[in-house]
């Protein structure tokens, strides 16, 4: 629902200047509401800019039915929200800001400029033209009656949109401190957990020459989750899309294995290994007969030494190599977090049931998705949805 410019006397406070908060501000201001965005950090969109440092993945070039399953058990809850601002709408929105987009070979959609900064600059110009006021270094600390309390003082507004993010990357402002405020009001918040996080691995010394190398053409398996994505081997462990995709299953206790030869069956691998070895070492025989890259052979030696001599047994190991790890990297290093404000605590317009006129959006809500544009798309979509709910609330209030 979009209202016309007939609310000039109404005010809105948006707390948090990430994608969800800025989208909420845009929708509210476009309807004529006087909007002020409050951001605790010295500048806006800090995590958004960091996410786009190596290429801003806005969304996926995907129909909604193929897009929604990536949100797991919250897909049904998010369906109307994402249907109202789907991947095609995200692309149109970016183009409307003068940022042409393109689709990569994996279906991921990026701005032509690749980085987030040109899009953010254009967005801030639009918001300024709409009359949105930005207040940085304003940290929200809760309520005093109906007033919003900040370090700098008290603010009243007709509606408020909370877009405070999750609990990762605290140095960029998303520290999850808001959870204590809401829980103090009796509002349900699910515990935070690391999502889209790397793995901690205590490597032996012989792995150090491989640090910084990508592990390609493998399949990671954790519980019912499989990922064909790449991972980077580092001194701390494993990072990258292939690992982020299985992070949730690992967090929930699933064992992790990697198939080093995912395009061949166990029998095919065994038959190749069964060739005469001659005077070659066992390691050289494996490398040559399977055309196995040195990094993959090093991983096999790291996690399954001594390697079986019998071809069938060795094939089974290489096809399901147990990954010895020490769990996920710390939550503050994760790209995103699980947990947050539960959907039971908000109505269908994302308004807090315990506080009428207060709406929530973005990563502070309890949903989880992999990288690949799913995070940013849902932040934009929930920000838009919460703002439209706030507009409907203002209209009802008269």
How does this structure look, described?
The chain is built from 14 helices and 21 strands. The protein has helices at residues 19-30, 46-51, 64-67, 75-84, 87-96, 117-129, 178-184, 241-244, 247-251, 266-273, 282-290, 294-304, 311-319, 374-397, and strands at 11-15, 34-39, 59-60, 101-103, 108-111, 133-136, 140-144, 147-150, 153-155, 159-162, 189-195, 199-200, 214-215, 219-222, 225-227, 231-233, 237-239, 256-259, 321-322, 336-341, 358-360. 44% of the residues are buried. It has a five-stranded parallel β-sheet with strand order 6-2-1-10-21, with helices on one face. Strands 12-17-16-13 form a four-stranded antiparallel β-sheet. It has a four-stranded antiparallel β-sheet with strand order 15-14-18-19. Helix 4 packs across helix 14 and helix 10 (266-273) packs across helix 13. It has two domains: 11-194 and 332-397, FAD/NAD(P)-binding domain (3-Layer(bba) Sandwich), CATH 3.50.50; 199-322, no CATH class. With 398 residues, the chain is of the alpha+beta class.
Shape descriptor: elongated
Question: What is the CA–CA distance across the termini?
Answer: 16 Å
The CATH class assignment of the largest domain is Alpha Beta
* Total tally of structural domains: 2
Total helical elements: 14
Task: Draw up the topology in text.
Layout: E1 11-15, H1 19-30, E2 34-39, H2 46-51, E3 59-60, H3 64-67, H4 75-84, H5 87-96, E4 101-103, E5 108-111, H6 117-129, E6 133-136, E7 140-144, E8 147-150, E9 153-155, E10 159-162, H7 178-184, E11 189-195, E12 199-200, E13 214-215, E14 219-222, E15 225-227, E16 231-233, E17 237-239, H8 241-244, H9 247-251, E18 256-259, H10 266-273, H11 282-290, H12 294-304, H13 311-319, E19 321-322, E20 336-341, E21 358-360, H14 374-397
Helix pairs in contact: 1-14, 4-14, 10-13
């Amino acid at each position: 629902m979009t209202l016309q410019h007939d609310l000039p006397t109404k005010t809105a406070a948006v707390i948090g200047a990430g994608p969800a908060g800025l989208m909420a501000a845009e929708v509210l201001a476009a309807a004529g509401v006087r909007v002020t965005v409050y951001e605790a950090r010295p500048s806006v969109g800090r995590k958004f800019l960091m996410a786009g440092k190596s290429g801003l993945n806005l969304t996926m070039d995907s129909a909604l039915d193929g897009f929604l399953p990536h949100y797991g058990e919250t897909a049904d809850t998010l369906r109307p929200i994402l249907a109202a601002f789907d991947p095609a709408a995200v692309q149109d929105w970016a183009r409307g800001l003068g940022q042409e987009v393109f689709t990569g070979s994996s279906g991921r959609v990026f701005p032509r400029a690749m980085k987030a900064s040109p899009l953010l600059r254009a967005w801030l110009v639009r918001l300024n033209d709409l009359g949105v006021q930005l207040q940085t270094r304003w940290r929200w600390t809760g309520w005093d009656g109906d007033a919003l309390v900040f370090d700098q003082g008290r603010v009243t507004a007709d509606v408020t949109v909370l877009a405070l993010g999750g609990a990762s990357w605290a140095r960029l402002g998303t520290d999850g401190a808001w959870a204590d405020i809401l829980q103090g009001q009796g509002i349900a918040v699910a515990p935070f957990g690391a999502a889209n996080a790397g793995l901690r691995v205590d490597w032996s010394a012989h792995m150090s020459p491989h640090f910084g190398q990508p592990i390609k053409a493998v399949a990671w398996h954790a519980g019912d989750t499989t990922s064909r994505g790449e991972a980077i081997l580092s001194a701390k462990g494993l990072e990258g899309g292939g690992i982020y995709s299985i992070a949730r299953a690992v967090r929930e206790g699933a064992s992790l294995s990697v198939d080093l030869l995912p395009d061949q069956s166990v029998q095919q691998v065994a038959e190749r290994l069964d060739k005469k070895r001659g005077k070659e070492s066992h390691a050289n025989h494996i490398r040559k007969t399977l055309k196995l890259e040195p990094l993959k052979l090093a991983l096999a030696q790291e996690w399954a030494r001594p390697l079986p001599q019998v071809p069938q047994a060795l094939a089974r190991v290489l096809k399901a190599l147990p990954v010895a790890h020490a769990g996920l990297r710390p939550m503050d290093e994760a790209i995103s977090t699980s947990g947050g404000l539960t959907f039971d605590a908000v109505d269908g317009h994302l308004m807090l049931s315990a506080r009428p006129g207060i709406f929530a959006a973005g990563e502070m809500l309890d949903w989880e998705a992999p990288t690949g544009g799913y995070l940013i798309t849902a932040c934009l979509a929930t920000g838009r949805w919460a703002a439209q709910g706030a507009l409907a609330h203002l209209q009802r209030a008269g």
